[in-house]
Amino acid sequence: MQTTPKGFRLHIGLFGRRNVGKSSLLNALTRQSVSIVSDVAGTTTDPVDKAMELQPIGPVLFIDTAGIDDVGALGEMRIRRTRQVFDRTDVGIIVTAAGEWTPFEDAILEELRSRGIPVIVVFNKVDLARPDAPLLVRLKELKLPCVHTAAKGGEGLPDLREALVCTVPDDFIKTPPIVGDLVPPGELVVLVVPIDMEAPKGRIILPQVQTIRDILDHDAYCMVVKERELQSALDRLKRPPALVVTDSQAFLEVAATTPDSVPLTSFSILFARIKGDLGELVRGTMGINRLKPGDRVLICETCTHHPVEEDIGRVKIPHWLQHYVGGPLEFTHVQGHDFPDDLSPYRLVVQCGACMGNRREILSRIVRCRSAGVPMSNYGLTIALSLGILPRALGQFPAALEVYRQHFAPDSATCALKHAS
Prior knowledge:
- The structure is a single chain.
- The protein is α/β, with parallel strands linked by helices.
- The protein folds into three domains: 6-173, Rossmann fold, CATH 3.40.50; 188-268, Rossmann fold (3-Layer(aba) Sandwich); 275-420, Rossmann fold (3-Layer(aba) Sandwich), CATH 3.40.50.
- It contains 17 helices and 14 strands.
- The chain has helices spanning 22-30, 72-86, 103-114, 133-141, 157-167, 170-173, 206-217, 230-236, 251-257, 267-275, 278-285, 312-325, 359-372, 379-386, 390-393, 398-405, 412-420, and strands at residues 10-15, 48-54, 58-64, 91-97, 119-124, 146-148, 188-192, 221-225, 243-246, 264-266, 296-301, 330-335, 348-351, 376-378.
- Strands 2-3-1-4-5-6 form a six-stranded mixed beta sheet, with helices on both faces.
- Helix 11 packs parallel to helix 16 (398-405) and helix 12 (312-325) runs parallel beside helix 14 (379-386).
- The longest helix is centred in the first third of the chain and has 15 residues, at 72-86.
């Protein structure tokens, strides 16, 4: 892989009113003209993403946003886009002109802190004015790091980088493994990789690539096969593999081929753990048992691929869910960072594996769904429950398996027989 995917980068959001220098600050930090800079208020319209390596932190993604004080109908749309960025922000930077602090800054601060997002305050344009002492005292009492910058001249940028290093969340520094904690060094993992029509020619999809790298990083090794070759591959081994990981679309076939004594899970379930909260998503998955024909289901994809025939989110999961429920359901699909403000019409949210999203965004969606009383699952968990093999797929995750056992679930053997027919 030539670059770190966005989903594995630290997301740093720049928030503030119009014309306080957010874009100038981003350009100065990245040493590139990433965002258009103008004296005209409201120059930045949509969020601008810039991926870079910020040493000593590593891979980061800066997100420059439109002014939170934008006006008019178009301004309201820009503000809505800015508010979506809160959902995927790991560290928030509030940028304000040095001599100013208004209710807009207070509102941004309250929003970030209510989400548990670390905050840095940047007083920009200090060559023109300085913040007053009482304001600095108040922010110090709130234990907020404050940095003084003059972005156009580069003043204060080293201080801002140092503040970022000190503010980075521990869970970013200690990135959880994908399978490294499940498989001892020197053991074999078999990866079942159907060739997806939506995967670019000559490549396999991102979760599979990342899993291979994680296995190598933890001194284990892997065998990669298609589902049709799995039986032949297992027959050639002198001893069973430590784990079989499959694309969720092939769950039923792979489960039938893999001996019960060999642990089995899917890429999507592995990513439910590192990109979200596996226990919460299992709890949400059990909400599928309360679905009735006619209910509305929201399906979310973090990438924006062009769907093709037999698309997993638009064709396969709807088919399996409707078969499981015993009647038609109404499906709504969203892509990228789009996520409805009002979740009340839905009885279930199904999130993809989120290989292109970051953990903060998925956790934000889990919190919003739980607050709205709407269960949230993900692709792999939904498929495993629908096909009656969820307990087996969770065998490597005792806490998540216990969540499953605490909730009523139909007999898995019956479900498997029903869907195999």
